[in-house]
Amino acid sequence: MKWKKKVFRIAFAASFAVLSPGIFLAGVADCAPVAAKPVWELSPAGYVFYQHSGMRLFLPMEYDGLLLTETPRKSGDGRLFTVSEKASVEAAEAMGTSPEGAGWLFDIAWVDEAGFQKMLCEDMSGAEIFAKDDLGNRYVFRHPTDVRYIRKDSEAMKRDQEQWSRLCDWAWKSVREKFVLDNLDRGLTAETYDNSEVAMYLARAAYRPGTAYTVSATGHGSLASAEVKAAPYVEQLIRNASYRMADRKETPDGEVIALDFPEENIRLDFFTSPGKENYVRAVRRDGSEMLYKATFADGTTRAGAVMQRWYWLLSSYR
């Protein structure tokens, strides 16, 4: 379940099981962060301005006093900012438990092209790619997948729940878009990548060396060619796209372009019937199936049409 749905659960017992934010995106996990100092003279009205490695983070002034904003002690681990709820950190310290991870709302980090490709091939629970700079680095919004809300007792938990929920809502809905807007002159542009089951296997075809796959069309044989790179087609299929589970009753009839992973025991069927080109069926060797429906930010991309172009090019190398 996604973080934005889970963080609103109140579980007092869970508040004592504070977990670390986890490994950093690009390497060194022992670079403890330090409290960041705001740049007051550059803070616009209504915001408090923090900076690290040339990047800016503007926090609403109404929330800044409720937050602990940290930057890494050393550069090189990819992390830029860590933001937590200050009261949860203080509660953890008062209870004699480690404050690490307490009240954690989000990190903003960057990852290079190689790291980005590796991320796409695996489960990215707790991480959302949301931007790209003009050097090809991607920016990642990392967030908890469990409850990080801590108070000394259940009464305090109930009292401050609205504050916690408001901070979580702001972090999930507003931070990424504003970060991009505030760093446009640093070369940032908004760019997202899907990490569903469909997207992960697509990414492996493009970015994981040695991944075995074939592409076939209904009634025709399977094709594969080292001369045809998967990446250009995969990019079209997972960039600024979203694949969400759909009711299997919506499964279309008609022909498909199938992307088969013989060593992974899964096949992805991309439907090509007019009006149904964004349905994808994941079929496992045990016969289980899952239906997905893709949506694309541009409103015009059709997954089945992209797969047809990939297949047609492969067929020219037979």
Give your account of this protein's structure.
Helix 6 packs antiparallel against helix 7. The N terminus is likely disordered. The protein folds into 2 domains: 188 residues, no CATH class; 119 residues. The chain is elongated. The protein has 8 helices and 16 strands. It has a 7-stranded antiparallel sheet with strand order 1-4-5-6-8-7-9. It is α+β, with helices and mostly antiparallel strands and 318 residues long. The longest helix has 29 residues.
Major beta sheet summary:
7 strands, antiparallel
Task: Please tell me the overall pLDDT.
Answer: 88
Total number of helical segments? 8
Residues in helix, % = 25-40%
How many E strands?
A: 16
Oligomer class: single chain
Beta-strand content bin:
25-35%
Keywords:
8 helices, seven-stranded antiparallel β-sheet, 2 domains, about 325 residues
Brief rundown of the structure:
With 318 residues, the chain is of the alpha+beta class.
Question: How does the SSE layout of this entry go?
Answer:
Blueprint lengths: L2 H4 L26 E3 L11 E6 L2 E6 H4 L2 E6 L6 E7 H9 L9 E8 L1 H8 L6 E6 L5 E5 L11 H29 L6 E2 L6 H11 L6 E4 L4 E2 L7 H8 L2 E6 L9 E6 L4 E6 L7 E6 L4 E8 L6 H13 L3
Antiparallel strand pairs: 1-4, 2-3, 4-5, 5-6, 6-8, 7-8, 7-9, 10-11, 10-13, 12-16, 13-14, 14-15, 15-16
Helix pairs in contact: 6-7
